[in-house]
Structures are given as structure tokens and as C-alpha cells.
Amino acid sequence: MTTRKIIGAKIKTRREAMGYLLKDIVPLVGISLSSVKGVESGTAKDIDLYLKYAEFVKCSIDLICEKNDFIKNSKTYKPTDAVRTLLKDSFFDIPKFAFEVRDKLLSLDLIDENASSSYVSNILTNLEEQGEINVDRSNKIHKYYK
């Protein structure tokens, strides 16, 4: 079982022990239903989602994590917060591809050098679901903007 699946299972168990249904968690944690399901199943890619959800259900990831990399990277880098930082300035005034966002985050040392464009794309998709960013899907190419 992968680390994410272990963490997701622990978080789900904690949620159930607290008496919350899936639909109850969404507004309380502030992430989408698909993100909640992704965390609980261990398929969500964004580390910040696990951290936010775990914090709400008072579940320490330090205690349940088998791989130190997950913790090290999530504490050193907050990728979703890093993208939100870019949203505050003029970076997204002109639509950007995920690789452009990744390159900018790397140049500012806001994400790990091993982070892929797909990883950044997942973060951008999560932010879109939360209404924080827009996506131009014309010509089957995604460009992200404010």
C-alpha cells in the first residue's frame, strides 16, 4: 500500500470516528468533494490537500507516514500556496501553460525541483475547482489565468 493510501485510510477512519459524512466535510475543510474522495482513497496528488484535511480531523501525518519524503516535501514546500502567491501578482494576467507555472515556481524556489508539470497541473485543477483560477480549454490545450 502506498504512503498516500495509508494516510488517506487513516484520515477517513478519523473522519468516520468523528461522525462526519463526506458531504459534511466539504464545507468544513474547504476542499471539493472530489478532492476529499481523492485524499481518502490515496489518489489525490496535491500534498496540501492531505495536510489540510488531516489538520481538520486532528490526524498527525507525522505519526502515520512511512516515508519521510512526503513530510519533508510538504513542510519545505507548500505548492498550492506557492501558486496562490503567483495569483496575487500579475503573473496570470496572461494565460499560462502548466509548464510555465512550474518553471516560474522553480525559479522562485517555491516547489521541489522534482515536481513535474503534471503535478503543477493537478494543483491548478484543484484551484480551478475551488474557483480561484480560470482555465482556457480552447484547442484542447489548457491555459490558466486569473
TrEMBL record:
GO terms for molecular function: DNA binding. Residues 10-64 form the HTH cro/C1-type domain. InterPro entries: Cro/C1-type_HTH, Lambda_DNA-bd_dom_sf. This is HTH cro/C1-type domain-containing protein. It comes from Myroides pelagicus.
